[in-house]
Amino acid sequence: MNRKLIFAGLFAAFAFAAPADAQVTLEMADITCKDFGGYDAARQDFVSNWMRGYFMAAKNLTVIDSRYVKRNSQKIARYCKKLPNSKLMDAVQKNAR
Questions:
Q1: Among 11, 33, 43, 95, which residue has the least CB neighbours within 10 Å?
Q2: Has residue 38 been placed in a domain?
Q3: Closest by CA position to 79, among listed 19, 37, 16
Q4: What does pTM read for this prediction?
């Protein structure tokens, strides 16, 4: 009787358990250029937007100029191609003006 009760409890737990979304955290300071290049498009967009907001706020800029963003993105891409093991935040700091 006891085994049947345990088995029924385990079955119910697995049958009615709802899948949970995994909570994923990123340590932005640890992302390398190589890591960033290996991310899917959605994660690259997420990281890019976070970096853009972070550095725009650091410079106290409230307006985003698309030409500015495009030019800096190209500079960062060239830098990362040359130095894939460098930190992405370093690449942004050295190349975004």
A1: 11
A2: yes
A3: 37
A4: 0.65
What are the tokens at 57?
């706020």
pLDDT tens digits along 41-51: 888 888 888 88
Type and span of the H or E element at 23: none
- Could you give the number of structural domains in the chain? 1
Query: What residues contact 79, with CB distance under 8 A and at least 6 apart?
Result: 33, 86, 91, 94, 95
Tokens of 40: 């899917």
- Is residue 28 in a domain? yes
CATH number reported for the structural domain that contains residue 31 in this entry: 1.10.890.10
Domain that holds residue 78: 21-95
The answer to whether residue 31 sits within a structural domain is yes
